Amino acid sequence: MFEALRKKYPRAELHYLVYRHTLPVLRNNPHIDKVIAFRREEHFFYLVNAVRLQKYDAVIDVQATPLTALVTGFSGATTRVSYEKWYTKLACNHVFSRSMQAETEAGAAIEKRLRLLSPLAPDFPKNLKPKIYLQNREKRQALEMLQEHGLNPQEQDLLMISILGSSQQKTYPPMFMARLLDWIVQHTNTTLLLNYIPAQENDVMAIYNLCEKETQERIAIDLYGKNLREFLALTSYCKALIGNEGGGVNMAKALDIPTFAIFSPELQKANWNVFEDGTNNVSVHLRDYRPELFQNKIQKELKAENMRLYREFKPELFQEKLLEFCQNHAS
Question: Which residues form a coiled coil (predicted)?
Fold first, then answer.
């Protein structure tokens, strides 16, 4: 959205109100003039004040929560835009439904957000790919980390594995993930890096211990990004990222790293499979292979049955598709 705004209005002052923990993703972005960061626990009066003092001409609320609607409604901006909810209708003068069919490979998630810019001008693009900006220093430090672990990305192919999802509900079952890693090692000559943080070590080791010995030997278990920027820099040296759909997948796409994403059964793949082209970005969902399990099920039922459905999502269902992906991107 910021890239689109910058191209359309090169002299505009563009600010971004975000949760503080998301700042690393925005670092070095040339299209953002100022970031207003806040924590979830901060009182909404602080946010209302922080936004109102800026005297914005336009405020675009992409979250559409009751809190962000209040901030938008009291902003004083002439143009106030959000997604359609009963409370955003009270706060905004332009609201848009989240229901839409994607018209480009950018997918619904991207097109929905770019559509929020339409009250400002009628000719914004529908299709722009998010980007993350790494500095040469960060790339150099990541290369040094790899070399310290005996890895050289010029001589061997590396795969980043998104081994855990953002929650248990979005995490491929450990036994299945271990079998998948065994299968990757058996069919490629790659070394595997794992995306995790120290607080997740026990969950990661549970999967690692389920893997075959040969697989364990090909996993750089002690090499991981200590923070988000380190993860991004390490990922930039990988041939692809494979694993649970989520932030890691989307960040890899923003680095132009090919991705193979495994969706949680409760999620609607069409809402989040951005820039999927069947070659560089591929995703799989249980619905692709067992559609009868989803017939006449509403979202609430799918969420309640998510873990049962996960048990039906055996890696054998999509191994051939993963093999084709690996053959395209790794040795």
Answer: none
Note whether 235 and 271 are same-domain residues: yes
- Residue 226 φ/ψ, nearest 5 degrees: -75, -15
In whole angstroms, give the CA distance from residue 54 to residue 76: 9
What pLDDT does residue 178 have?
97
- With a pLDDT cut of 70, the percent of the chain lying above it is 100
Among the three residues 115, 144, 179, which one is the final residue of a domain in this structure?
115
> How many Cβ atoms from other residues are within 10 Å of residue 55's Cβ?
9
Query: Under DSSP, is residue 221 helix (H, G, I), strand (E, B) or coil?
Result: coil
**Any residues with CB less than 8 A from the CB of 170 and at least 6 apart, and which?**
244, 245, 246, 264, 267
How remote is the C-alpha of 245 from its chain's centroid?
Answer: 7
Q: State the distance between the two ends of the chain, measured CA to CA, in whole angstroms.
A: 36
Domain-ending residue, one of 51, 80, 115:
115
Report DSSP letters for 127-149, one per residue.
---------HHHHHHHHHHHHHT
Q: At what angle do helices 174-187 and 319-329 cross, to 10 degrees?
A: 50
Q: State the residue for tokens 């001008």.
A: 121
Give the model confidence (pLDDT) of 18-40 as tens digits: 999 899 999 999 999 999 998 87
**Residue 15, beta-bridge partner list:** 34
Share of the chain above pLDDT 90, in %: 84
Among 226, 204, 208, 207, smallest CA distance to 217 is for 208
pLDDT tens digits, residue range 221-248? 999 998 999 999 999 999 999 999 999 9
Model's pTM, two decimal places?
0.91
- Asked if the structure places residue 280 within a domain, the reply is yes
